[in-house]
From TrEMBL:
Residues 154-214 form the S1 motif domain. InterPro entries: CvfB_fam, CvfB_S1_2nd, CvfB_S1_3rd, CvfB_S1_st, CvfB_WH, NA-bd_OB-fold, S1_domain, WH-like_DNA-bd_sf. GO terms for molecular function: nucleic acid binding. It holds the Pfam family S1_2. Belongs to the CvfB family. It comes from Pontibacillus litoralis JSM 072002. This is S1 motif domain-containing protein.
Amino acid sequence: MNQFKVGTTSTYKVDRIIDHGYVLTDGVEEVMLHINDAEEQLEVGQQVQAFLYHDKQGKIVATTYIPEIDFVRYGWVEVVDIVDDLGVFVNIGIPKHVLVSKDDLPLFRELWPYVHDQLYVCLQRDKRDRLLAKPATEDVMQQYAEPAPESLLHAPISGTVYRTNKVGSFLVTEEGYQGFIHHTERKEEPRLGQWVKGRVIDVKTVGSLNISLRPQKEEALSEDAEHIMEYLTSHDGIMFYTDKSDPEAIREQFNISKAAFKRALGTLMKQKKVKQEDGKTLLIKA
């Protein structure tokens, strides 16, 4: 019975050389090392460290390319392919890409990672002994994280999203600081594995950060005003939203707070680009 396990790294001896590579042995059983899986030319009797995985035919084979992650050690890996019914495949440093199951990805497909996004994962085996990559849990990320200094308040910051949910997005920076983006501090929900840029709006006593992906008020004003102008232009110069409109209706349509909407609308009225009449906002045509 084959006792070899995929995902393990051990030292083997080169028993013999064949047309397509090498036959390795642990003294009891043998495993194939294809020539493309060997980093260098090997000789009979040579001791070599190798990692075991399933090839495309489902056979256990060896490679001398050793991944930096294992079943307890996590690391950042790149997404290289997306398959809707399965999940995403990542490059762990061996010739074959490894699946991150859709069960470990966000429920909504649009929040799945894109190719070239980064995930923080370790290895695991499923019930059929197949090798998978599993994203880190919140507990793991807390162990990974470094406490952020108070001097980061109001500073620009960037990092990778490692968890998404309805309340907000969680990210970790290059320095290892943990950050949280409340859903009101973003216009669009970042996907898992996405690199985002924002600014620090609070440094918590535990050393984590609250982050906003929204621009500063001065910058946001012109952006929000432009969004309102675009809406008016595409709706024949009329919209049924005013500074008296319901805050939830404003957020649903423009994805901004009522306060931000009123500021932008006030600016446009001062610039005589819009006016309000009979419960409507009207575009003033030049």
